[in-house]
Write a structure and sequence with these properties.
By secondary structure, this protein is α+β, with helices and mostly antiparallel strands. The chain contains 2 helices and 6 strands; from the N terminus they run ββββααββ.
Length: 89
């Protein structure tokens, strides 16, 4: 039997809202990296994972990425996803 499709929402501390779906994937957390580049520019990377542990493991790679790509710094955030029905918020 096919898994039920669902919509998932992540609400970040700065008020940004990301909706994922419809999906049957077992995602539980959303992560976002805001890389601070030279000249005041920023670049955003994001993804979703099946556990908080998997999401926070991304932090270990960020120091390497910052050095390799010449980032001035970065912000990293992980939030739990909430499930909702289509049309709800």
């Amino acid at each position: 039997m096919a898994r039920k499709k669902r919509y998932l929402t992540a609400t970040m501390a700065d008020g940004y809202v990301k909706t994922i779906g419809p999906t049957a994937a077992p995602f539980t957390h959303y992560w976002r990296v805001v890389a601070h580049l030279r000249g005041g520019r920023t670049e955003v990377f994001w993804g979703h994972t099946g556990s908080a542990k998997e999401a926070t493991a991304k932090r270990a790679l960020l120091e390497q990425a910052a050095r390799r790509h010449g980032w001035q710094g970065y912000d990293f955030e992980v939030v739990a996803l909430t499930e909702h029905r289509p049309g709800e918020r």
